[in-house]
Design goal:
Length: 391
């Protein structure tokens, strides 16, 4: 070590930078509109924010909350799962509140993945999945989403399973593609999980962000799946407060006990006042969730139609904050080059799928655009794209 700076541990070196940080930095340097990182540019319901404010003023949650989360939030998570999915979640021992869905995911991977265990996931995938598997010393195995619609291919999934496969990491509504898995697709995935006795980690951060009849179905609701599934949710995504970092994991006691055992040694507890506020959010009437979806669907249409007018091939978005486009109609072969050029030509940032895949050919021609922005921002971005990409 003499004279040398300490090195990052080998297993984390490939994760030293993140595509979201890189592209947000490019946005700043080029003065671009950032449709890369997925966060809304308007805050969630005022009454939810008001609960957090009142809690801080009244001293509720200002000191360490209980490690698994404040009972009010755990109860609200259980009520929410019963109300939307008819799932019976034990608010005492079947839920753990975490510092965002990210910590729920990493704690779950750390709790179950032994060194050398394989974790299978569809590609492209959200970047922290790869980092989480590396942190745990596991081996990630990607299965490409396939065809023009970027759908899960069950034969390819089956072919990726080996005797070392321990975990199936699922994400629907899916980031970055905007695909929502159908009941048939989920049933086929569930069959593979049961056949090979796999643990399923289901990242459902975007559970309320689906459009038209592309209903979100938690895989834990399918026969035989509850006992092998840890389901992850996000207060940030469901209530447009991504900076609060309130997430959770729920499932059977034995699995949640293991997740909690790890999680208490990570961030230990998460922002108390925000937990009470998210509990309030989870109990909002159905109209909140319907109007939230309608607003996002309108923004999705605005951006998707504009991107199509610019000549991009739009893969219709069924959920999440994101729409995917194929860049080949504009004469590009790869999304990373397109994104770098577009930052300079049009001053708009998108995220290339290829950097969210191990096999970079899988996502080569696709890029992801975030539409969770104010209509005026989307319109400005589209103006810049139509001028910049044409020149
Ligand atoms: N989940 C968000 C996205 O996919 C934010 C990612 C990040 O900044 N790490 O854009």
């Amino acid at each position: 070590m003499q004279g040398q700076p300490p090195l990052l541990v080998a297993r984390m070196r490939e994760h030293a930078t993140s595509i979201f940080a890189e592209m947000s930095d490019l946005a700043r340097r080029t003065g671009s509109i950032n449709l890369g990182q997925g966060f809304p540019d308007t805050d969630g319901p005022a009454e939810v924010a008001e609960v957090a404010r009142a809690c801080i003023a009244d001293g509720r949650g200002n000191q360490y909350p209980p490690a698994p989360g404040v009972p009010d939030l755990r109860q609200a998570i259980a009520e929410h799962s019963a109300r939307f999915y008819r799932l019976s979640v034990d608010s005492d021992s079947g839920v753990v509140v975490t510092t965002g869905a990210s910590e729920a995911l990493q704690s779950t991977l750390l709790a179950f993945v032994e060194r050398g265990d394989e974790v299978v996931m569809f590609e492209p995938r959200f970047d922290i999945y790869a980092a989480g598997v590396s942190l745990a010393g596991g081996v990630r195995v990607g299965v490409p989403l396939s065809g023009r619609g970027l759908r899960p291919d069950i034969d390819k999934l089956r072919a990726a399973i080996t005797p070392r496969t321990k975990v199936l990491l699922l994400n629907s509504p899916h980031n970055p593609t905007g695909v929502v898995f159908t009941r048939d697709e989920l049933e086929a995935v569930a069959e593979v999980a049961m056949e090979h006795d796999l643990l399923v980690i289901s990242d459902e951060a975007y559970e309320h962000l689906w459009f038209e009849d592309h209903h979100h179905i938690p895989i834990a609701t399918l026969p035989g799946m509850w006992e092998r599934t840890v389901t992850i949710g996000s207060g940030g995504k469901s209530f447009s407060f991504t900076g609060w970092k309130v997430g959770w994991a729920y499932g059977p006691h034995e699995l949640i006990r293991a997740v909690s055992a790890v999680r208490q040694h990570l961030s230990f507890v998460s922002g108390g006042p925000f937990q009470y506020a998210i509990a309030h959010g989870l109990r909002l009437p159905d109209t909140y969730f319907t109007e939230f979806r309608q607003d996002l669907a309108h923004k999705r249409d605005l951006l998707s139609d504009g991107l199509a007018r610019c000549g991009l091939g739009v893969v219709p978005s069924q959920g999440t904050y994101f729409v995917t486009t194929d860049v080949r109609p504009l004469g590009y072969d790869d999304g990373a080059t397109f994104c770098r050029d577009t930052a300079h030509r049009a001053k708009v940032i998108a995220i290339p799928h290829q950097l969210l895949c191990d096999d970079s050919t899988v996502g080569l021609p696709y890029v992801r655009w975030a539409f969770c922005k104010q209509p005026a921002v989307l319109e400005q971005a589209l103006d810049q794209l139509s001028t910049g990409l044409a020149s």
